[in-house]
Amino acid sequence: MLEQDYFMRMISQLTAVLSEVLFHKKAQQMEEARGGIRTGVKSLLGFDLDLLHSFSDAQILELLNTSGELDAAKCYATAMLLKEEAGIDAVEGKTAESVGTAEKALSLMLEMILSGAAGLPASTAADAEALIEILSPYELPLHIEEKIFRYYEQARRYDKAEDTLFGIVERSHQFVPEGLQFYQRLLKKSDEELQAGNLPRGEAEEGAAELRRIAVV
Fold first, then answer.
1. Cα-based torsion angle of the residue sequence 159, 160, 165, 171 in order, rounded to the nearest 10 degrees
2. 92 with 51: CB under 8 angstroms?
């Protein structure tokens, strides 16, 4: 109960910060919007935005870990603030900065979803998928692609998981064993489950066979 109350307080405070940022963005006041994000990071998370810029997504996750457990409330707030900053960078034509910040935001969101963090807003998956779409023109770090793969499988979107899997394998054959385990899990499911995931059994069997061919190359 205390944990849920803490999460709800964080969401309430974050909503106020994001509302102010959105107000400035709509008014094309980008410096004020960026200042709102910087202030929000300091007040909600207790550290400077520059620290998030200097840290990798893995380092940020480590920073947000308390006694071996991810602080989901702070992780969510961090992800959403970074997502908004990536949007500001994009508007200002700072493509490299926008992509790098969006990658961090996506990695944090997927980490929370995959870990089954309690209390996440229902919009979290939609926010993650919006970032996936924004980043689709770019080659993402493999560890983020792997999170996307696992996210799609968890969401039972097996066709998307398969597409992501083969994109990863093209870059690294080290992921082949995990890919084969994915097909083992899939082929134990019913035809109805596979059809609902847009990957009929025949297509799943073809994908498994192709991956086995890659494994022996």
1. 130
2. no
Name residue, tokens 């602080």.
71
pLDDT in tens, 122-164: 999 999 999 999 999 999 999 999 999 999 999 999 999 999 9
- Entry field: residues in the chain: 217
| 24/21 Cα distance (integer angstroms) | 5
Query: Rounded to an integer, what is the distance from CA 84 to the centroid of its chain?
Result: 14
In angstroms, the CA 179 to CA 163 distance is 11
The separation between CA 192 and the C-alpha centre of its own chain, rounded to angstroms, equals: 28
Residues with Cβ < 8 Å from 103, sequence gap 6 or more? 57, 135, 140, 141, 144
The helix/strand/coil state of 132 is: helix
Which 3 state secondary structure label does DSSP give 9?
helix
Distance CA 96, CA 103 (A): 11
Q: What is the pLDDT of residues 155-211, one digit of tens each?
A: 999 999 999 999 999 999 999 999 999 999 999 999 999 999 999 999 999 999 999
Q: Using CA atoms, how far apart are residues 210 and 1, in angstroms rounded to an integer?
A: 49
| Cβ atoms of residues 165 and 173 within 8 Å | no
For residue 66, what are the β-bridge partners? 69
pLDDT number for residue 7: 83
